[in-house]
Amino acid sequence: MAFGTIGLIGAMQEEIERFLERIVEAETVAAAGIEFRKGEWLGKTVILCKCGVGKVNAAVCTQLLIDRFGVDCIIFTGVAGALHPDLNIGDIVVSTDAMQHDMDVTPLGFARGVIPYTDVSVFAADANLVEAAYAASESLYPGHTRKGRILSGDQFVANRDTVDRLRREMDGDCVEMEGSAVAQVCHLNGVPFVILRSMSDKADGSAHINFEEFTRLASERSGSIVEQMLKSGMQA
What we know:
Strand order of the largest sheet: 5-9-8-6-10
Order of helices and strands: EHEEEHEEEHEHEHEH
Number of helices: 6
Oligomer: single chain
Number of strands: 10
Radius of gyration: 17 Å
Mean pLDDT: 90
Helix content: 25-40%
Strand content: 25-35%
């Protein structure tokens, strides 16, 4: 069956601009300091919001989308720093799953990223949404899409040693600051999700040079992919 209501989240204004231009007949509802815009896009009912930076903001926003608006699935889009050596600026990562890289209880014997005393620490994206996102991305940007693991933490990674450690210890493909929180909340509520991240930098200390320059390009690509997904029908 097709998804009825789709939640769209970006952390920053630049990451939702493409969506704002396309949603019609939108009404705005404010809750917990977040503006939710409910409208239509290509015949689909969508709820668009800017959650703000960081995992707490993302978690609050996701739960509100589920409780207050009853979304049937959630797509999180935006930019990220590349961890996988084959990724270049502008390339797309479609989440297979997500983890928190700053969840670190290793002194008590837990592996990095493991949430103590819970059954799940790796949150798998919905397989159908993953395939829809991958197909849409490849149709628009052939050869520039990778399925992989999203790592999230409340820190901006800009250090080559950290990049190497996150690749080695957690097998991450890219790093950002919200996705795993969205993933965990969706998992707890049984709501399908996928995360789309376009690479704005290499997470290697050069972000001050290229982050702002490539954020708009990356966001444009993410927006185009979501548009293509909506055109394809997005079946559950």
